[in-house]
Amino acid sequence: xxxxxxxxxxxxxxxxxxxxxxxxxxxxxxxxxxxxxxxxxxxxxxxxxxxxxxxxxxxxxxxxxxxxxxxxxxxxxxxxxxxxxxxxxxxxxxxxxxxxxxxxxxxxxxxxxxxxxxxxxxxxxxxxxxxxxxxxxxxxxxxxxxxxxxxxxxxxxxxxxxxxxxxxxxxxxxxxxxxxxxxxxxxxxxxxxxxxxxxxxxxxxxxxxxxxxxxxxxxxxxxxxxxxxxxxxxxxxxxxxxxxxxxxxxxxxxxxxxxxxxxxxxxxxxxxxxxxxxxxxxxxxxxxxxxxxxxxxxxxxxxxxxxxxxxxxxxxxxxxxxxxxxxxxxxxxxxxxxxxxxxxxxxxxxxxxxxx
Length: 356
Description:
The protein is of the alpha/beta class. The protein folds into 2 domains: 3-118, Enolase-like, domain 1 (2-Layer Sandwich), CATH 3.30.390; 124-343, TIM Barrel (Alpha-Beta Barrel). Helix content is 33%, strand content 20%. Strand 6, helix 6 and strand 7 (214-216) form a beta-alpha-beta unit. Helix 1 (72-89) packs across helix 2, helix 4 (144-157) crosses helix 5 (172-181) and helix 8 packs parallel to helix 9. The termini are far apart. The model has no long low-confidence stretch (mean pLDDT 96).
């Protein structure tokens, strides 16, 4: 399916838009090359139509600008000052950048448009399955033994793929321990751009010999020349995440041979519309793609799961159950079953805690 095959949706100008901010504690700290997250700064957009229909969107921005330049305080300011007033006036916002803030508002209004059309997101985008394969990301641990125990719990849960966060100093030894424990487990690593080109002869070369499904974002997002060198030199597929913020970025990366797989995070690329353009291009070019998230609550999970049911989403995505992050989600919990799949469904009613 291509973008042109999707039926146009009715235009809807919301009667009311609310920006909601709160915090949810994570069930355990999540450590990556960019730092440690102990809670999720939740930034939501609630759009209400003239008919009383309600749509919600979630901003993917983190508490600090360490993963990308966007962060939750800035996203909230842009939403309140520019994006929401423009949406209420039915005009373009004229804002450059701020894709995560834009994605939250887009999702909220998109759900109003879907309701007006009498359809669901999965149906409209062209989903081809009603259950999706789930993988899980595992952060940097306090020790190799702790990491192996954490992976064991996820394997027991049935996840079809495990992705280990790595960074200089935490890479070959822990990954080798997991690989030796589960020789057949679909296993990948994610460096979040923390290595340099010189590491292609050191740590990255050693990781390349461990039978991995992919090495995600080994070098900085803007180092496409280095990533193209990595893709040529490594036998393991190179997956691009932060490097791909648009379909144009993917076009450039493919022209340079800078990657083999794509991690598509709709909340990071500006929302569903741009995510669909990236998906369609990857499908056309035969590039394996999977859907990722950003410590998502159930509000964002409804979007990522719907996109994971697209024909071009050929690899298990980072689609963990609600309990991976939160003791209690904002929607009905998203669950995986023993075969490592999750049902494609709307989010259901959003329930905000009293602390929001």
